[in-house]
Write a structure and sequence with these properties.
Layout lengths: L21 E2 L5 E2 L16 H20 L12 H13 L10 H12 L22 H25 L4 H12 L2 H7 L5 H19 L8 H20 L4 H18 L7 H33 L12 H4 L19 E6 L5 E8 L14 E6 L7 E6 L5 H5 L13 E6 L4 E9 L7 E7 H4 L8 E5 L16 E5 L5 E8 L8 E6 L9 E7 L21 H17 L21 E5 L5 E4 L3 H26 L7 H20 L17 H22 L7 H30 L6 H7 L12
Antiparallel strand pairs: 1-2, 3-6, 3-14, 4-5, 5-13, 6-7, 7-8, 7-10, 8-9, 9-13, 10-11, 12-13, 15-16
Organism: Allomyces macrogynus (strain ATCC 38327) (Allomyces javanicus var. macrogynus)
GO molecular function, one term: dolichyl-phosphate-mannose-protein mannosyltransferase activity
Protein name: Dolichyl-phosphate-mannose--protein mannosyltransferase
């Protein structure tokens, strides 16, 4: 143990049951962790050879990622999003996205270093970079660098787990020669950063686990802290970084369960282990995650396209946003425009009427249409009147101070252009038959149906009935007094008879969040006496960092789950390992294209090896149950912990996608694919040592193993080269050449002829 901790773990007595042990290179027993290391390579596989192979794989990784990175000099696929977000950062303009900010911050930082000012908006796929003077090569270089650095980490993870150098080299080269990983890493996208930080977290955890005999030493603390930092990095790029957190979390639970054994640690020692992991693997990642958002808010200080997603109080923190000014109070006799909080549609009416019958043969009231309209228009203006018509003359008296509309005030809304009054009644709305229709009635009929035009203003979060209604985003519900329904709208457009505008209806579930409205503008009636100063509106209270964080976090989660709109290149998770689908990234006007397609042979062989591992694990469990051990203890230890850890990591990065309802794409599988390649390398080592038992002792067997490894790498490289024209897009392919490469009919290559 480290001298600073003052702790010494008790060793089990000879008669105590031992856990499964591994044998170190010096022949001594050592305690396992959640994934114990496998035996060290033979002396013929020297450290020098390993380092040479590491450099070869790393160099090949850089060559494949940076080759022809300047092509095409146009916006490709999702560069329209992530390039645009980098420009927003550099212009300090607020925007909204469903991903955490770290990846986009790093792209923006790369742009800032090279002097890019963010002038380009990345509007459309195919927009020309050179014409718009965008330093796109330098911007693409950062993701390419991250993608290239994954390879040495994969090599080192397998080496630290003590697999053979053949397995390390094959696993690394599978990553180097995967067409989809190369294509995804060469563009201004987030995935290469996600994959780098995920691999770094796994590497740091493996290094930490190997310090188990030096608990609380400097190296032990360093690798534990680095694991926590890596988790904070991977979480900061995309929310699926939580899959990596879950992987490390399960490994931690296994370790803690092992340490809980009273024969190994006292409760004081266990508490120290627990709190060390809690601080480094929970507190540190959360602190870093909050830090990325703090920087995000600190940089994006100007009003921008993301304002509409945020609450009025949030918007008040942005320079140039109208919410940052002073509020105007709503008074009786004022002309107002009302805006729906969720959809941004204005309360609107016009002289056209509802049709006699709808498409489902229902009969309407044929009243004047009341709709939601997305643009400013004179038909959006409403006059605020009191519930008691006898008070109207007094309220308009030039000598009478303005009377402010407050929480629970009862009002009538008159449509200014048509001189008709808003009402709702027991008639089904056009789209939503369970909700009430909104319409208006003319001045002549108003007093006869006065009770149907009365609405109560319910201000959201009002402390009491003295809370005033005002502009700058004070949210309220307009509740019909007679029937209790709340005014509501939603995005679905009405038919052509309503010009495709939104339906306004009365929602019987009045407390739903989607019933909230805002006063967009207010124009006071002309009076000799102005609004009293003591009732002047105040500016919105600006939220704290944590309130802004939780608001944005909630919106990110809800909008991410709401990404269900069909896309021509989306695909279900079961298609990914089988390479049943790809994604068209870019195509020129002739015969060049970039198509996100994995190295099919590499993926199919990898999936087969994962299947062999899963079936072998089940077979071994059954055999052991019957008292027939399949593997010797050393090999069993390696299979159970080292390969098992990688298999669980792969499963946790893949199977959760089956539970998601949002649109999914092949690139969501790429982090899992990297781990799958490590499983494949580990299983390749298992096959080699099974077929060549003397692999680590015999030079001849070692040479045979290298020949097999070289043949495998050469085969994978040949397939990579065959599909390279679709990966880089630099070489045009004829229709016949494309058809020859279309091994599966589900691959949607773009044909120019």
């Amino acid at each position: 143990m480290g001298s600073k901790s003052g702790l010494r773990h008790r060793k089990p007595q000879n008669d105590e049951q031992q856990p499964l042990l591994e044998v170190d290179t010096n022949g001594k027993d050592s305690k396992p962790t959640s994934h114990a290391a496998a035996p060290a390579p033979a002396a013929t596989e020297s450290r020098a050879l390993g380092n040479l192979l590491l450099w070869v794989a790393t160099l090949a990784s850089f060559v494949t990622r940076f080759y022809a990175i300047s092509f095409p000099s146009q916006v490709v696929f999702d560069e329209v999003h992530f390039g645009k977000f980098a420009s927003y950062y550099l212009r300090r303009t607020f925007y909204f996205d469903v991903h955490p900010p770290l990846g986009r911050l790093l792209i923006a930082a790369a742009g800032w270093v090279i002097g890019y000012d963010g002038h380009f908006d990345f509007t459309n796929i195919g927009d020309d970079y050179i014409e718009n003077k965008v330093p796109y090569i330098e911007l693409r270089a950062w993701p390419a660098l991250c993608g290239a650095l994954v390879v040495p980490l994969v090599f080192e993870i397998l080496r630290e787990l003590r697999f053979s150098l053949q397995a390390c080299f094959l696993g690394a080269m599978l990553v180097v020669l995967d067409n989809s990983l190369v294509a995804q890493s060469r563009l201004i996208l987030l995935d290469s950063m996600l994959m780098l930080f995920m691999t770094l977290a796994l590497y740091c955890w493996v290094k930490f686990s190997k310090q188990r005999h030096n608990a609380f030493s400097c190296a032990w603390w360093s690798w534990l802290a680095m694991t926590g930092i890596s988790l904070g990095l991977v979480m900061g790029v995309k929310m699926v970084g939580l899959f990596t957190v879950a992987t490390i979390g399960i490994a931690v639970l296994v370790e803690l369960w092992y340490l809980l054994d009273y024969r190994r640690t006292s409760m004081a020692q266990f508490a120290n282990h627990f709190f060390a992991r809690a601080v480094c693997l929970i507190v540190v990642p959360i602190a870093l995650y909050l830090t990325w958002f703090y920087i995000h808010f600190a940089v994006l200080t100007k009003t921008g396209p993301g304002d509409a997603f945020m609450s009025p109080n949030f918007q008040a923190t942005l320079h140039g946003n109208k919410m940052s000014g002073r509020a105007e109070l709503v008074v009786y006799g004022a002309n107002v425009t009302l805006k729906h909080f969720d959809t941004g549609a204005f309360l609107h009416s016009h002289k056209d009427r509802y049709p006699l019958t709808y498409e489902d043969k229902r009969v309407s009231s044929q009243g004047q249409q009341v709709t939601g309209y997305p643009h400013n228009d004179t038909n959006n203006v409403w006059l605020v009147k009191p519930a008691d018509p006898d008070q109207w003359a007094t309220l308009l008296d030039a000598e009478t101070p303005h009377v402010v509309v407050k929480h629970n005030s009862i009002v009538v809304l008159e449509h200014l252009n048509t001189k008709s009054h808003l009402l709702t009644h027991d008639v089904a709305s056009p789209h939503t038959t369970t909700n009430q229709e909104f319409t208006t009635i003319p001045e002549d009929d108003w007093l006869k149906r006065l009770d149907e035009t009365l609405f109560r203003v319910e201000i959201d979060g009002a402390a009491d009935d003295e809370e005033p209604l005002k502009t700058l985003g004070v949210q309220f519900r307009l509740v019909h007094v007679k029937t209790g329904v709340a005014m509501h709208t939603f995005k679905k457009p009405l038919p052509s008879w309503a010009y495709g505008q939104q339906e306004i209806n009365g929602n019987k579930k009045k407390d739903e969040k989607s019933n909230k409205w805002l006063v967009e503008e207010v124009v006071y009636p002309t009076k000799d006496q102005a609004v009293p100063i003591d009732t002047a509106g105040e500016g919105l209270k600006k939220p704290s960092f944590l309130k802004k964080f939780f608001e944005l976090q909630g919106l990110m989660i809800s909008h991410n789950a709401g990404l269900t709109k069909p896309h021509p290149y989306q695909s279900p998770p079961q298609n990914w390992p089988l390479v049943l689908t790809g994604i068209s990234f870019w195509q020129d006007s002739v015969d060049k294209q970039i198509y996100l397609l994995p190295n099919p042979v590499a993926w199919w062989v990898t999936l087969a090896l994962i299947g062999v591992y899963a079936m072998g694990w089940v077979f071994e469990r059954v055999a052991e149950r019957r008292g027939v051990p399949v593997n010797d203890p050393k090999t069993a230890n390696q299979v159970h912990f080292s390969i098992g850890f990688l298999f669980i990591a792969w499963a946790l990065h893949y199977f959760p996608f089956f539970l998601m309802g949002r649109s999914l794409f092949l690139h969501h599988y790429l982090p899992a694919a990297i781990i799958a390649f490590m499983v494949a390398g580990a299983m390749f080592d298992y096959v080699l040592t099974t077929m060549l038992p003397s692999l680590r002792k015999s030079a001849t067997a070692n040479i045979v193993a290298w020949i097999v490894t070289a043949a495998c790498v050469a085969g994978i490289a040949a397939v990579f080269w065959y599909y390279a024209p679709l990966t880089y897009g630099t070489t045009g392919l004829t229709v016949d050449e494309l058809k020859a490469r279309k091994w599966l009919q589900t691959w949607n290559f773009q044909y120019s002829g």
